[in-house]
Write a sequence for this structure.
């Protein structure tokens, strides 16, 4: 194999992306949780958010759908589902949207839907940034075998910053296990909030 070839460069880029993650600081964790969870929040509501990942539908002809287990982050899932469908229906230059709709109902691979999901999530983060020069922030579990709870500490989470959407999307694809976990939707919200900036999000709500 040619070490200077495309495959070697891709492997090197993946290793670089893996190395940029750092543990979330206690201060960052405190600030984002104060924004997310006001004092009036009910613990049962918090638990719903901590128990919702990105889960694929197993219904026939709807395997591109995202399933919500219980009440909670329905707005987040609805937004991601809309962007996901946009990429699936209008992302092909060789097939119109009607044909795409028929095709994805009958034949969509796990690889295709995961790629579309990563593109949807990346696009949402890109549009939520306060400025064109703002970083893309990706938040994931430090250990993909664990999940977040309302009692979790900052060291359960790691994050990384990226300058461009392509690097962000590639890093997201490599870390989808975190988003398919029960903590997935919450981790995505953390990513969006930190990409926009906590102060900007706070001002958005005023």
């Amino acid at each position: 194999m040619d070490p200077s070839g495309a495959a070697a460069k891709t492997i090197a880029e993946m290793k670089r992306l893996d190395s940029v993650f750092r543990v979330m600081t206690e201060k960052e964790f405190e600030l984002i949780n104060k924004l997310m969870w006001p004092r009036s929040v009910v613990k049962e509501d918090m638990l719903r958010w901590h128990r919702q990942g990105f889960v694929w539908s197993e219904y026939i002809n709807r395997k591109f759908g995202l399933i919500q287990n219980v009440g909670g982050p329905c707005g987040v899932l609805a937004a991601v589902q809309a962007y996901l469908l946009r990429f699936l229906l209008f992302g092909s230059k060789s097939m119109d949207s009607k044909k795409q709709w028929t095709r994805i109902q009958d034949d969509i691979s796990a690889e295709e839907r995961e790629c579309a999901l990563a593109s949807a999530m990346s696009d949402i983060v890109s549009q939520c940034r306060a400025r064109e020069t703002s970083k893309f922030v990706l938040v994931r579990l430090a250990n993909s075998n664990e999940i977040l709870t309302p009692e979790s500490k900052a060291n359960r989470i790691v994050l990384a910053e990226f300058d461009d959407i392509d690097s962000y999307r590639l890093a997201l694809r490599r870390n989808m296990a975190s988003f398919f976990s029960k903590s997935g939707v919450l981790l995505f919200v953390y990513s969006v909030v930190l990409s926009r900036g906590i102060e900007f999000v706070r001002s958005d709500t005023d």
